TrEMBL record:
Organism taxonomic ancestry: Bacteria, Bacillati, Bacillota, Bacilli, Bacillales
InterPro entries: Extradiol_RC_dioxygenase, Glyas_Bleomycin-R_OHBP_Dase, Glyas_Fos-R_dOase_dom, VOC_core
PANTHER family: RING-CLEAVING DIOXYGENASE MHQE-RELATED
Gene3D superfamilies: 2,3-Dihydroxybiphenyl 1,2-Dioxygenase, domain 1
Full protein name: Ring-cleaving dioxygenase
Length: 315
């Protein structure tokens, strides 16, 4: 059988304010901040991970908050919309919640499903969809009870400068199956139960520009290190020039840019976010890889303080 990814592992984006980021994704959307660390390639910048109770693969959206970042432009070579999956029957709750916090949204019908589309404070394009599949989140925070909580990713809409090539990579390399086409979008499905529905804009999109409010990369799941090494070999055989395997502490990663100019990562499911913090303390302390520990005081001094807090509207 052809090697197949189960779906999205995580999605990583740029934003400006770290506290605004925490307030939106934890305070409004009710996700758990499961890891507070740094960009290993730029230690003066946080790397914040939000997800379900443990940030399971398929649930983690991650951010590089940079106060001086320019505003990006969503376009070709990027994830256009990040789709979150919510429990069946919870859409009215989410409409009421977005209204309560003044988040403007619109209802969109796409391939026999209803989506709520909105943006975060930096303009990152998000949407919610109800589906039966995927394990329920066990996390409750602020005004979001566990039975209404975001389960993880539903999938994404990809904006490509060369969609035929992007779709070929999804189907022939990543092992997704084409399952539908409607109103200029082509739908693919992976075999997992989270982050498994990928829509591709069928027409080439004008190139986007990186910056706050845009996605940096989309990561796909590898089962383990053995599976990961095989992915690296297969990407190389496809002529897509994967990077060396990089240790990201909570997963191993390779990166490559597919022909539609979207940056793809393939990341291992293990070891996960509990490798260096107990469940009850996830996301509370700034966690640094060992090579940065000698510089902890300097790094902490340069980072703005952030607090996970229940927002006034929920008190």
């Amino acid at each position: 059988m052809t090697q197949q990814t189960a779906g999205i592992h995580h999605i990583t984006a740029f934003v400006k304010s770290a506290q605004d980021n925490v307030d939106f994704y934890a305070g409004i959307l009710g996700l758990r901040l499961v890891k507070k660390t740094i960009n290993f390639d730029a230690p003066e910048v946080y790397h914040l991970y939000f997800g379900n109770e443990v940030g399971s693969p398929g649930t983690a959206i991650t951010f590089f908050p940079w106060e001086t970042a320019r505003r990006g432009r969503v376009g070709g070579g990027q994830v256009g919309y990040t789709t979150f999956l919510v429990p069946t029957g919870s859409m009215a709750f989410w409409e009421e919640r977005l209204n309560k916090f003044g988040v403007e949204y619109k209802r969109v019908e796409r391939i026999h499903e209803t989506y709520l589309q909105f943006t975060d404070r930096d303009g990152l394009q998000l949407e919610l969809v109800e589906r039966e599949g995927g394990p329920a989140s066990k996390w409750a925070f602020g005004g979001v009870p566990a039975d209404k909580a975001i389960k993880g990713f539903g999938g994404a809409i990809l904006y490509s400068v060369a969609p035929d090539h992007t779709m070929a990579v999804l189907e022939k390399l990543m092992g997704l199956t084409k399952v539908g086409e409607e109103n200029g979008l082509v739908r693919f499905r992976a075999h997992g139960d989270l982050g498994n529905v990928i829509d591709v804009n069928a027409e080439p999109m004008p190139r986007g520009a990186g910056g706050a409010g845009t996605v940096h990369h989309i990561a796909w799941r590898a089962k383990d290190d053995q599976d990961h090494r095989l992915w690296q070999s297969r990407v190389a055989q496809a002529g897509l020039q994967p990077t060396d395997i990089v240790d990201r502490q909570y997963f191993h990663a390779i990166y490559f840019r597919e022909p539609g100019e979207i940056l793809f990562e393939i990341a291992t499911d293990p070891p996960g976010f509990e490798r260096d913090e107990p469940f009850d303390a996830l996301g509370e302390k700034l966690m640094l890889p060992e090579w940065y520990e000698p510089h902890r005081a300097q790094i902490e001094q340069g980072l703005p303080p952030i607090t996970v807090r229940v927002l006034e509207e929920d008190k």
